[in-house]
# Entry
Amino acid sequence: MAVEAPFMNLEEALQATDALMLDVVASEVSVLQDASRYIISAGGKRIRPHILFLAYLSAGGDNLEDAVPLAAAVELVHTATLVHDDINDHGRIRRGRRTINEEWGRTFALLTGDYLFTKVYSLMAPYGELNVIFSEAAVALVEGETLQAAAVKDNSLTRETYQKIVAKKTASLFRLSAVLGARFAEARKEHVEALGEYGFYLGLIFQIVDDLLDLVGDPRLMGKETGLDIAQGKGVAGVFAHLAGNGSGSAPKVAVAEAQAVAKDDDPFLPIKRRLIAGGAVEEGRQMARLLAGQANAALDRLPPHPAVDELRDLVTFVLERDS
# Structure
């Protein structure tokens, strides 16, 4: 059942979020404006704004237009992290386009990511204490990215570290989206907590599935390169790195060596992918995601019946089964 709301429906709210993001990054420094609008206009799933709006409606919010700046702020943070991720990963394709660092170079990509972060301040200025939980989520995000970089550098990614990384770098922003929507609607504490748990678990699922798609996904559907986790020893590929190696060295080094050996293949990481799949990496990841889906839905069970809650539940299925 589609969610209907007075003044502005969900689709209109998502469109308004995009329009606001494009507007707020206007700058007399043309490269900042052009690069920012370049990645924003490339689209994306807009899952975080979607969560925020549905959480707001589920808690009794009745004017989605009022929540648009919050949704735009969350999505701008996410977009900024993508720009910085592509620098760190040497990514060349994002959302079916050349990345900003490919199009404008590393320096301007770094500055564009910073610029997107700074624009969040102007969007969040009117929202008082909501800035506190926003900043806490942003701190967690940076901590997660840093933990990941350190683990990759030391070739020390374990299941425990992976779970901590995913909780901080991805789940924190999903949780923030749900909590902001609920808090802005002045929901009861129990409602906010249930939605926060839902967002957290959904974020974990999203990242696990994203990492699995790096192994088995179709780059044409995903709009970006795959195999980057293998090359860098992160994500699910990093956790199960021992399955790709031969006992003679670190998994990233093994992956790169084998990639060079089969460079004529359309997918230079195919041998490592096959070893990881045969070793159970993909199936274990999927089992973990299914378990977390149950926990996300259990959190929603604590909420009163509402069409928005039904759509939040549908999002769990979408994230769990997505192929891009």
In short: The two ends are 24 Å apart (CA to CA). The chain has one domain: 10-319.
